[in-house]
């Protein structure tokens, strides 16, 4: 759905792609002001590029006619906006209470050794980034791990290798 | 036993499409609502005694009644479904949205009609991708069938509905923080008053209701307030999505009459503790509620009894602590979560939670002192109600203050033995 957005509402898109601008415009149509689209715009850019660079923060700010500081303030507030490059797949390990009770640490440690990286790091081939994540709302199947949008439930140490293998190119 | 909220939901069962949902009585509640005035629809919900299922238990009809009405009241008005569900140990709204999106949408259309809202948002946490997809699909079906959009079912009532995915932050579950997030801002809570019902999203009247709360509404309008009251046990109305996680044999979510004994949740529906594990305590309604123990198992699981016992029913989803995990370690895990998720707006929360975390880490390593344990015991008061900007910090210290009450020996033993006794 392409929405016609009046030119007084948006500025130049800069490095934003036509596809990104089209998606941002679709969101603009049902919010009262441009600031409201800020989070969605960050998510759209991240969906296409994997992460949000300084240049993208500025381009979003220019396009939405809000300050870069406002965009940056939002980008750094939310857990799932990445301001640094990440791997092609982001693996998040739930470290909250139900998974803790069920012994998620063995899953975490096995993932670290399988990938050869610590939390916050990306594998040398650029495939995987490993991060801790807060409660993922699947506590009856703890421990859980998310790979991008895929939820893996009832994970134990023995399943880690197969999960990683599944996502390798 | 009737289970209206989960009647269309089962393991491996796809969510009903519009035709299937309608074949099972869906949108009859909406038709009933549109046949009466918005005030009359609101009255049915008031009379039903439906209370907020997000954790606070505030009467829903009363919450709605604070929205200014009449020709001269501000417009547009907004309705938001709070599906942020980031409370540790909580997984009920996911089931409802993924399992039966039309039920939520019908609840929202009726609620919007009652309060005069013309625009609605379903606010979902980022991880609930499947839920978001299913909502979008159901919304499209509604638009095609005149259940959303202009002049719904020829009633003259207009309502637009959008799905909004969060970018991940626990504080978004707090309704004023959620409103800031919907406005594309950092999700810092706002000062109250003004309450959102008067000045919320973009300064307009806004009601934020939990997903489960809204899912009750179609059934109340379809079957009546008296029917709904009779679903609960004693003075409680309706059913509740209870659940349990931890070392029970069959963790899960179950729709049961509001007010069932806690024991039923653990022993009957949860299947009892796994072999080799004993229950040492439990958090009754998420990570921000006080521990209760074996002596509380026969209490009815409702807002009042759990409140009187010194905790909160919260989300109604138990987190079981077994005898083989360290209570200090469990409290530390919870505090780490809250310290990380604090929005940083007010000092007691921003600085207090990391200090608690630091002291608990020392204690857990066996490096704690008696003086530090005394300091730890003072924190729940410093971060308690009235000393912080919102409810995050007071909730965050609830497990700590109750662990110090029920499991004090475990804290002491870390100092005496200079290590964690649980290894």
Q: Topology of this protein?
A:
The complex is a heterodimer of chains A (about 170) and B (about 425).
Chain A: H1 18-28, H2 38-49, H3 54-64, H4 68-77, E1 89-94, H5 97-101, H6 105-115, E2 128-133, E3 145-147, E4 150-152, H7 157-167
Parallel strand pairs in A: 1-2
Antiparallel strand pairs in A: 1-3, 3-4
Helix pairs in contact in A: 1-2, 2-3, 3-4, 6-7
Chain B: H1 18-23, H2 28-34, H3 38-48, H4 60-65, E1 78-83, H5 92-99, H6 101-115, E2 119-124, H7 129-144, E3 160-165, H8 175-182, E4 206-210, H9 211-223, H10 225-229, E5 239-245, E6 252-257, H11 262-269, E7 279-283, H12 303-308, E8 317-322, H13 327-341, H14 347-364, H15 370-382, H16 392-396, H17 398-406, H18 408-416
Question: What does this protein look like?
Answer:
- The complex is a heterodimer of chains A (169) and B (423).
- Chain A has helices at 18-28, 38-49, 54-64, 68-77, 97-101, 105-115, 157-167, and strands spanning 89-94, 128-133, 145-147, 150-152.
- In chain A, helix 2 crosses helix 3 (54-64) and helix 3 packs across helix 4.
- Chain A is of the alpha+beta class and 169 residues long.
- Chain A is built from 7 helices and 4 strands; from the N terminus they run ααααβααβββα.
- In chain A, strands 2-1-3-4 form a 4-stranded mixed sheet, covered by helices on one side.
- Chain A starts with 17 loop residues before the first helix and ends with a helix.
- Chain A has 2 domains: 18-77, Arc Repressor Mutant, subunit A, CATH 1.10.10; 89-167, 3-Layer(aba) Sandwich (Glutaredoxin).
- Chain B is α/β, with parallel strands linked by helices.
- Chain B has 3 domains: 18-229, Rossmann fold (3-Layer(aba) Sandwich), CATH 3.40.50.11540; 240-322, Ubiquitin-like (UB roll) (Roll); 327-416, NADH-ubiquinone oxidoreductase 51kDa subunit, iron-sulphur binding domain (de novo design (two linked rop proteins), Up-down Bundle).
- Helices cover 42% and strands 11% of the residues of chain B.
- Chain B contains 18 helices and 8 strands.
- Chain B has helices spanning 18-23, 28-34, 38-48, 60-65, 92-99, 101-115, 129-144, 175-182, 211-223, 225-229, 262-269, 303-308, 327-341, 347-364, 370-382, 392-396, 398-406, 408-416, and strands at 78-83, 119-124, 160-165, 206-210, 239-245, 252-257, 279-283, 317-322.
- In chain B, strands 3-2-1-4 form a 4-stranded parallel sheet, sandwiched between helices. In chain B, strands 6-5-8-7 form a 4-stranded mixed sheet, covered by helices on one side.
- In chain B, helix 14 runs antiparallel to helix 15.
- At the A-B interface, helix 2, helix 4 and helix 5 of A face strand 3, strand 5, strand 8 and helix 13 of B.
